[in-house]
Amino acid sequence: MALVAFEESIGRSLKSAWHSAVTGFAHFLGARKVLRGPISKQSRHGLDWLNFFLADIQTGFGAFVAFYLADLGWDKGQVGLALSAAPSPV
To answer: Are residues 6 and 47 in the same domain?
Structure first.
């Protein structure tokens, strides 16, 4: 009896997960259609400048963190691991 209830519970969970995945994929396809529209020149320039400044911040921030961690007594291997494990914002 308990096994049947457990199997039904698993079935409902899988069905719910499948529905969520299909719904998410449909939302993704709808978003892609919106992105295919024309993009203004002003928007492109704004995104170019945003990308430029984010890259500048990322470069400067990485060097700052490396020196800061080294000043705290971290060895080179630990600093390298910390910088490579950090997610890239760009």
So the answer is: no
